[in-house]
Design goal:
The complex is a heterodimer of chains A (360) and B (262).
Chain A (H helix, E strand, L loop, with lengths): L9 H4 L5 H20 L2 H26 L7 H17 L4 H23 L4 H21 L1 H4 L5 E2 L3 E3 L2 E3 L5 H23 L2 H11 L1 H6 L4 H27 L1 E2 L6 H14 L4 H26 L7 H16 L3 H15 L22
Antiparallel strand pairs in A: 1-4, 2-3
Helix pairs in contact in A: 3-8, 3-11, 3-12, 3-13, 4-5, 4-6, 4-11, 5-11, 9-11, 12-13, 12-14, 12-15, 13-15
Chain B lengths: L3 E10 L2 E11 L4 E5 L6 H8 L7 E6 L2 E2 L13 E3 L12 H8 L8 H6 L2 H21 L14 H14 L4 E5 L7 H16 L4 E5 L3 H7 L2 E6 L2 E6 L1 H5 L2 H8 L1 H7 L4
Parallel strand pairs in B: 3-8, 3-9, 6-7, 7-8
Antiparallel strand pairs in B: 1-2, 1-4, 4-5, 9-10
The chains are: A mainly alpha (360), B alpha/beta (262).
């Protein structure tokens, strides 16, 4: 077990607590940068897909993991991010500007929707946002003058400062583009967590009543969380649409929201690592499933298999590992560090039955 | 002018009158206790000051400012911090993070600066941490600095909640049953802390407490409530020997038989 001898407050404020931790993440970054040299273009495309899922997942993680508000409507915000980005690109707005503006637009719309929606709590909020996701599907069809409805749109090639990046011709550049977005979003996320706003998110999640008593404006904090969350998810949606090559209303149907939610639960609610681990599961599961059915079913497709397996995995995680994959790793690490003194109940959640919720 | 002035406040829940025409004054530097049987409306008075409830009539003024005009999250900006009867900490966060939330009202940087972690944010974080460390020193919380609340014993949580309130640099502290559920030793500690909070930090304390031993040791002034109305007010000794108070706690027979109850 490591002991940190602390001599400076900055040691708790810095992104990495010590050199060992820093070198681990530096090694991971080097690996990520060198990935195009190590694997062939097909798997590089898969890696890009994982990172895109991770961006969208980080958005929902901020809302659900950090602020404690469940949303099943994030597919709508992915759609909004995607369509606004592509429409601006078609109007000859430079890609970087269009991409960032798409995030801003999604964030502002998300915050506006949050004002009435966040008066609801728990499962009611989930249902209200689910309605939003289902509505978005229809709205895309109704607005076919702009969105081309069910026929869908082709993603234009990305023009980055005069250098064209297309999905098929430049997979390596695409990968680096997505990696840059992932790094920026993760850095912003970490910065928020170590600042007053991030602590206000946690305060709202754990006890609204005492957050208020400490001067946290609960409604405002939730709205900000929803806005930032939607902005990040919108960026993820824009990347997803551009990466897919073509997209329509079906690309962003409400199942996408459920996949997003499942991703952060399986990865580990409230951990940045959780969004990435969940993204790996979500992105590779369809591949693994199709390989398995090829092996055993001789190529006969089983309808609904994918959603079925997703559902079973989600149920198993909620029952047996609510802290997700990253939580399981943390437990394993503590077990090794304390060996043989780790106790089984160390991570058990204490339930508190005496809550002051009746004040609401 | 008194620091806290409550004038003829009445609060009704449907047909139940929770607080009935209550008036009280808390002077700056006082330690003031609210006592009374269960359901007398003591915590309700706290929740009125915190603006979780709005009274039907009456006024609440803190340092001359109308508290009733404010939203619940604005009350701490006046310099009022509080603890809760059932401990309302942020369970999934560490002790340090809980105490830092106490500093929330004193933050000065905006969201964008925080996202980019500008030098101003870093400087502010250091200042907050320094202030929080002083609270940690004062309450001897050093061993628990990085522990999550979810794994801490009850007595420590109680102290962390006091610390979180102190971290916000209040002028008045509302303590809802600071000694409930504490051991004899922990209650002793609480007594010294309340004394020091008043003497060293110059913070006015308003508390709800059942432990009359603690109340008579630390409080200057006591107000007894029953069924939402004021029964008696005065020094701890005066209130304890007041016949109406004895009646409220022990019933009418006790008074008529002996007149004096131990």
């Amino acid at each position: 077990m490591k002991f940190h001898f602390k001599t400076d407050y900055d040691q708790d404020i810095r992104l990495f607590p010590d050199w060992w931790n820093f070198s681990l993440y530096a090694a991971l970054l080097v690996l990520a940068l060198a990935l195009p040299l190590l694997i062939d273009p097909f798997f590089l495309g898969e890696a890009t897909n994982v990172l895109i899922w991770a961006v969208a997942g980080l958005g929902l993680m901020l809302l659900t993991g950090q602020t404690g508000q469940v949303s099943l409507g994030h597919s709508a915000f992915m759609a909004l991010g995607c369509y606004s980005c592509v429409l601006m690109m078609e109007a000859n707005v430079p890609f970087v500007l269009a991409f960032l503006l798409a995030g801003v637009i999604t964030g502002v719309v998300g915050a506006l929707i949050a004002v009435p929606a966040l008066k609801l709590h728990g499962v009611y909020l989930a249902i209200a946002t689910l309605a939003l996701a289902i509505l978005a599907d229809d709205i895309i069809v109704l607005l076919k003058e702009w969105t081309d409805g069910v026929n869908g749109k082709m993603s234009p090639p990305i023009d980055l400062f005069g250098y064209e990046i297309s999905r098929w011709n430049n997979p390596v550049e695409w990968y680096y583009l997505v990696l840059t977005v992932v790094l920026m979003v993760t850095l912003f996320y970490r910065n928020l967590l170590r600042a007053p706003l991030g602590r206000a998110f946690a305060a709202v999640r754990d006890s609204e009543i005492s957050a208020q008593a400490m001067g946290v404006n609960v409604a405002q904090t939730k709205t900000i969380a929803f806005g930032i969350s939607c902005a990040i998810t919108g960026l993820g949606g824009a990347l997803m649409g551009l990466f897919a090559g073509a997209f329509n209303n079906e690309t962003f149907n409400f199942l996408l929201s459920i996949q997003l939610l499942m991703m952060i639960v399986v990865g580990g609610l409230g951990f940045i690592h959780g969004a990435f681990l969940g993204a790996v599961v979500i992105a590779f599961l369809p591949q693994v499933l199709s390989m398995t059915t090829d092996l055993f079913g001789r190529g006969v497709a089983i309808p609904g298999l994918e959603s079925g397996v997703f559902g079973v995995i989600l149920i198993l995680f909620i029952l047996f590992e609510p802290m997700g994959l990253y939580g399981r790793w943390l437990k394993f690490r503590v077990f090794l560090e304390l060996f043989p003194f780790a106790r089984k109940d160390m991570f058990k959640r204490q339930k508190s039955y005496l809550k002051t919720e009746r004040l609401r | 002018m008194s620091l806290l002035e409550i004038d003829s406040v009445t609060l009704k829940f449907g047909g139940v009158t929770a607080v009935n025409n209550l008036s009280m004054r808390v002077e700056e530097g006082q330690v003031f206790a609210l006592v009374g049987p269960n359901g007398a409306g003591k915590s309700t008075v706290f929740n009125l000051i915190s603006r979780f409830y709005t009274p039907v009539s009456g006024s609440i003024r803190f340092d001359g400012q109308d508290v009733l005009k404010m939203a619940p999250h604005e009350v701490p900006n006046l310099g009022i911090a509080r603890t809760f009867q059932n401990i309302e900490l942020f369970h999934q966060a560490t002790v340090l993070q809980n105490l830092l939330v106490g500093r929330h009202r004193l933050r000065q940087t905006n969201m964008l600066a925080q996202m980019l972690h500008l030098p101003s944010v870093r400087a502010e974080e250091r200042a907050h941490r320094h202030a929080v460390e002083e609270v940690i020193d004062f309450l001897d919380l050093q061993p628990y600095r990085n522990s999550r609340i979810a794994g801490l014993p009850y007595g420590v949580r109680k102290v962390v909640e006091l610390g979180r309130a102190l971290a916000s640099k209040p002028r008045m502290l509302l303590l809802d049953e600071p000694a409930s559920g504490l051991s004899v030793e922990e209650t002793q500690n609480m007594r010294w802390w309340i004394d020091d909070i008043r003497r060293q930090m110059g913070i006015t304390v308003l508390m709800v407490e059942h432990d009359m031993g603690l109340v008579s040791k630390v409080c200057d002034r006591v107000l007894a409530l029953a069924d939402g109305a004021k029964l008696a007010e005065g020094t701890p000794a005066e209130v304890q020997s007041h016949p109406k108070v004895i009646e409220a706690y022990l019933g009418t027979n006790a008074v008529s038989k002996g007149g004096k109850v131990a």
